[in-house]
Every structure is written in structure tokens, then in C-alpha cells.
Amino acid sequence: MANGLTLTGTNIDTPDPAALARFYARLLGWEIAAEEPDWVKLAAPDGGATLSFQTETNYVRPTWPAGPGDQQMMMHLEIRVDDLASASAHAQACGATLAQFQPQDDVRVHLDPDGHPFCLWLG
Questions:
Q1: pTM (2 decimals)?
Q2: How confident is the model over 3-58, as pLDDT tens digits?
Q3: DSSP notation for 62-105
Q4: At what angle do helices 17-28 and 84-94 cross, to 10 degrees?
Q5: Is residue 62 domain-resident?
Q6: Is 44 in the same domain as 88?
Q7: Is residue 1 in some structural domain?
């Protein structure tokens, strides 16, 4: 812990926190640790940083890849996998969409139900 700072979690904006949290819970195998009407927190079974989802009423779906004037993604998740094809199929079965543009052979970019890109990468 450098300078007393510890990253404890990441919040993702969404028009529907409960629905997006349930997508990521299925995808990652994480549990819902806390839920309020406008905020849901997921926790990994082995601890560590959490992933939360909060209501953004003015949410604009990002475009991947973004072009001039498009809503750009503000961040994305990197998820290491052992088998890229199997993990990609699992992500799609959970409700993700395989992005048309794939910049690398050992990475698969997917879009969650709200359009946030996330990367599955072979590690």
C-alpha cells in the first residue's frame, strides 16, 4: 500500500444498476454484496477490489471503436482467461455481444448489455 492508498473498487455508470450487476455476477461468478435502488456492489469470492454499478440517468452508450463525435468509452475492464474461445462463448451466453472490431489475436473485445467494452485476454 503506497502512501496509505488502496483501490477498493470501481463504479460503472448505467441506466439499470441491478440488471448490469447481474450480468457481471454471471460473467465473473461474483456475488452481490450490497444492493440499493440506485447502486449495486459485487464482490469476488476471494476478496479484493469490488465492482459496483450506479444509476446514471443521462447515460449515453459508448461506441466501440469511437469515431469523431461518438461517445467514447471512459474505461474498460480487462479480464484474464485460460481459454479465449470458451470464455467468449460464456460471455455471449451471459448477454455480451462480440464487438465487430477486434484489435488483437489474443484478446476478444465484447460489449456488455449497456455497451461498455470489456476485454477477455489470454493469460
A1: 0.93
A2: 899 899 999 999 999 999 999 999 999 999 999 999 999 999 999 999 999 999 99
A3: --SS--TTSPPPS--EEEEES-HHHHHHHHHHHT-EE-S----T
A4: 150
A5: no
A6: no
A7: no
